[in-house]
Amino acid sequence: MQALVAALGMPKFAAKQILRWIYVKRVASFDAMTDISAANRALLSEHYVLGRVAPVHEAVSVDGTKKYLFQTINGLVETVYIPEDERATLCVSCQVGCKMNCRFCMTGKQGWSGNLTAAEILNQILSVPDSASLTNIVFMGMGEPFDNTLEILKALEILTADWAMAWSPRRITVSSVGLLPGLKQFLEHSEAHLAISLHNPFPDGRAALMPAEKAYPIERVVAELKKHDFAHQRRVSFEYIVFEGVNDSPRHQRQIVRLLAGLPCRVNLIRFHAIPDLDLHSPSLEAMTQMRDYLTDNGIICTIRRSRGEDIAAACGLLSSNNPHD
């Protein structure tokens, strides 16, 4: 920003002013930057745009969850606002579609149309109507974050830097199927929390659900995580969508315990949300409770995640810009 204002012949201190207007005051136009001279505001408008774009559609769930649709250079993406008691979480997207093609995910079934830029990622956070109320951000929307690592890291830097939004990284979680090159970069350059999509602790069973297992086996992902000290730093969690008769047996539960032994982490059990033309089913609450209790009794912190926004296709695995208004 200092280089930008210098190139326009503006004073050096204008860089800090502009950043404050964008990320703290959250203005949507240069004209709103009232402590910058009118001539310099006109100069900025002539050469640059702020990149703020309002959502083009909004859907509201009976439980208060809201789903927003944003236009990006490569297509439409969905962003989900989840209010709960004193928390307000925004689930942001990082790609238009996804290359991972997980069997149970609507986003993967639409294919991949392009990566979001850091600006398009941040625009979701700044431009939802509920922006000022946010307490947490999760990169769990459309796309695989570590298939777009550099833009994710840029966005995380701006979110957490003192010169920008100054969020604590402890309020941010990035979710991944476990692409190791990007995962290693993330662990080195960010202190945000990490969530890994597990869904099956056995290689063959996981590969049947998640093709990424073939290139980046979950055992290698866990081995990489065990190299790091998470005791007093970021939180590591494993997301586990439960499919009746597929990954919920005592055998699977025992293997989860073996796989994660020695790694400070937690497991979030997620009820499967049915999608068209897929022969997978959600288990009963009793089965999920039994699984949670087994993992907890064997030393793994385990919770059952409450489903939100299923009636507007905003719940886990349902995001797809192919049918954005459903």
Structural overview:
32% of the residues lie in helices and 20% in strands. By secondary structure, it is an alpha/beta fold. Strands 1-2-3-4-7-8-9-10-11-12 form a 10-stranded mixed sheet, covered by helices on one side. The longest helix is centred in the C-terminal third of the chain and has 13 residues, at 285-297. It is elongated.
Provide the fold topology.
Layout lengths: L1 H6 L6 H10 L14 H10 L9 E4 L5 E7 L2 E10 L2 E5 L3 E3 L8 H4 L2 E4 L2 H10 L8 E4 L9 H12 L11 E5 L3 H10 L3 E5 L5 H7 L2 H4 L2 H8 L10 E7 L7 H11 L5 E6 L13 H13 L3 E5 L21
Parallel strand pairs: 4-7, 7-8, 8-9, 9-10, 10-11, 11-12
Antiparallel strand pairs: 1-2, 2-3, 3-4, 5-6
Helix pairs in contact: 5-6
Within the largest sheet, what's the order of strands?
1-2-3-4-7-8-9-10-11-12
Instruction: Give the overall average pLDDT.
Output: 93
Low-confidence stretches: none
Largest sheet: 10 strands, mixed
Helices, by number, come to 12
Instruction: Report, as a whole number of angstroms, the end-to-end distance.
Output: 41 Å
Proportion of strand residues: 15-25%
